[in-house]
Amino acid sequence: MIKQYLLSPGPTPIPNEVELAMSETMIHHRTPQFNKVFEEARGGLKKLFGTKNDVIMFASSGTGAMEAAVANLFSPGDKVLVINGGKFGERWLNIANAYGLNPIDLKVEWGRAVKVAEVEKQLEAHPDIQGVLIQASETSTTVLHPVKEIASLTKGGPLFLVDGVTAVGVVPVPVDEWGIDVLVTGSQKALMLPPGLGFIALSDRAWDRTKKAKLPRFYFDLNLERKNQQKGSGAFTPAVSLIFGLRASLNMLEREGIEKVYARHARLCRATRAAATALGLKLLAPDSPSPAATGIFLPEGIDADKVLEYLRDRMNVTLAEGQDQLKGKVIRIAHVGYMGAFDVITAIAALEMALRKFGAEIPFGRGVAAAQEVLMEALP
Fold first, then answer.
1. How many whole angstroms separate alpha carbon 140 and alpha carbon 294?
2. CA distances from 61 to 32, 68, 107, 111, 176 (A)
3. What are the tens digits of pLDDT across the range 247-257?
4. How many other C-beta atoms are found inside a 10 Å radius of the C-beta of residue 16?
5. What pLDDT is attached to residue 240?
6. Where does the pLDDT of residue 1 fall: very low under 50, low under 70, confident under 90, or very high at 90 and above?
7. Could you tell me which residues come within 8 angstroms of residue 370 by beta carbon, excluding any fewer than 6 positions away?
8. What is the mean pLDDT of the chain?
9. pLDDT > 90: what percent of the chain?
10. How many Å apart are CA 242 and CA 344, to the nearest integer?
11. Residues 6+ apart with CB under 8 A from 42
12. How far apart are alpha carbons 223 and 211 in whole angstroms?
């Protein structure tokens, strides 16, 4: 038997403590016993999101929370600015189109962060923009967008909606402090849970907008959910076992200390990038990397998808592929959630071996050594 290594940017590994919490005996969701668990999880989410307001939980993926944001905050024909720099920027665009909004598609080169000046230019050219939609961490391109700077442009203006699926629990994205109007995430990234929970936090002015918005919604009705979740459960059947696990994962993050969590992600990112550079490989996001995952171009003539298949099926190491125009060219190594120094070492060592298998002249240990130099910083 060979151990499996899950080193993709979602789903991510689940700690034993969280698995044990999810295996607790099922209880009914309309009971004081569940209400207690639910309230403790709600309190932990408020701290993580940096907000005094409710963080709403849905039994959905992060995409469900994105859809809830659009459905609850806008009316048909509303003009919105979509920062489209990757597969998930495209998702904001697709949701906006599905709900009959009027999106302005601000295209950004894959692998680059949006320029704040470009956003400002669009806001000046279109003063009737009702919302700005962005990823904090664009998982498909491993880029970190300048959310704090853009939030300063939208204060008192259009609502600012942030997909934080691979940012919450990885980098600071404090809702109240930065003036973010909507922040969403999912369970299967830094929260160290299986897929199945979507989360959304709204500012006061975003909650006010929900009372005026005219798009249809039923399951994703934020006001209905807020009313019910404040009572300790939800409007519909919640994902009971996942919420048990959520309470455990939030406790783990609190014990580690959120600043140390952010520092760990940043260190693992630097180590992975140092390893790739030492191996002479080109980085997908050279200037604004996300601490959640690192995208790496493989050498010319080597099919990245075949390398990934070999890693997964022969070496039991699962990394992630490039998407759309990056398919077959790029691999992505995650360092998000329940991951540490030796997960990075495993990923780099396996990559060196796989590249050698496919004919690349890769010196064994060079990438590993570069990563070790960075990872040593955290050792006593």
1. 10
2. 26, 11, 25, 25, 24
3. 999 999 999 99
4. 9
5. 98
6. low
7. 271, 274, 275, 277, 278
8. 97
9. 98
10. 27
11. 54, 55, 57, 229
12. 8
Beta bridge partners of 199: 57, 185
Tell me how far apart the alpha carbons of residues 81 and 64 are, in angstroms, rounded to a whole number: 20
Domains of the chain plus CATH, in order, are 16-255 (3.40.640.10), 257-378 (3.90.1150.10)
Q: How confident is the model at residue 2 (pLDDT cuts 50, 70, 90)?
A: confident
CA dihedral over 303, 304, 309, 312, signed as positive or negative: positive
293-297, strands of its sheet edge to edge: 293-297, 330-334, 320-321
Rounded CA separation 50/185 (Å) = 13
Give dist(CA 71, CA 218) in Å, integer: 9
Q: Is the pLDDT of residue 120 over 90?
A: yes
Structure confidence by residue, pLDDT tens digits, 26-42? 999 999 999 999 999 99
Distance from chain centroid for Cα 138: 8
* Cβ atoms of 236 and 13 closer than 8 Å: no
Segment 297-313 mean pLDDT: 97
DSSP assignment letter at 282:
P
pTM tops 0.70, yes or no: yes
CB-based contacts of 114-122 (< 8 A; 24+ apart in sequence): 114/83, 114/85, 114/145, 114/146, 114/150, 116/146, 116/149, 116/150, 116/153, 119/81, 119/83, 119/150, 119/153, 120/153, 122/81
Find out whether 353 and 316 touch, Cβ atoms under 8 Å: no
